[in-house]
Amino acid sequence: IIKTLGQAENTAYHAMCFLRKYTRILYKDGKISPYPFANFIVGDTFEVELEYLEPEELKSLHDLYDSKELLKIIKTAKSKFAQDFNVGEKYQEVLRYFLVACYTGFRHSDIKTLERKHIKGKYIVKKLVKGREGKHKIVRIPIRKRLFSLLDMENFNGLLFKNAVMEDSQTNKYLKEIMKVAMINKHVTFHKARYTFAIVSLILGVKFEVVSDILGHSEYTTTQRYAKVVNSLKDEDMNKWDKL
Fold first, then answer.
1. 134 has a pLDDT exceeding 70
2. Rounded to whole angstroms, what are the CA distances from 63 to 60, 67, 70?
3. Which of 25, 174, 192, 212 is the most exposed place for a label (fewest CB within 10 A)?
């Protein structure tokens, strides 16, 4: 999954959990033998390294958006029958709703369905659909100035972005190019915005319970994976004492 398909470690972990679940059913029903996972340990999701944007990287991305430098990027036509394409407009658009996800912790599916009707005063109030089970939870996210600056409150179609949000795969392709422009050497997919929100919030001192609630987690153990990253950062910083 990682070497051949080129998927991230977290994706590989969840894929293996999926395979383990259904091969166990097949094994119990006597349809396969031996049990494929008898001597294979999938691991723990908490052991998977969570890649996220540092606060400084997040700020540089927002500065890039504000500068409108992306709008200058033109994809030159490869033949005389084609036309030049202002791909920079797409980059700017994708960066806009990626930043919104970084400031809210929303998944791609939540961003796609985000509308002006979800703005209630100084909050975004939205019902989130969680996981394959289809469970719902309503979250209230305070709107601060960085987030508000990215929302289109005048859009005639009721959406909070100029155009409909692109599909996840296309969004990730554009994000890859945006990170090159921003000189951020990380494998950034749209879901990394959720990691970024959680970890940066904890770094900035937002209470654990607040982060958990905004993310829509029903169990604190789910949020704990992000707190573990922050704790490891604290440990690294405290190692500086040994250099005295």
1. no
2. 5, 6, 11
3. 25
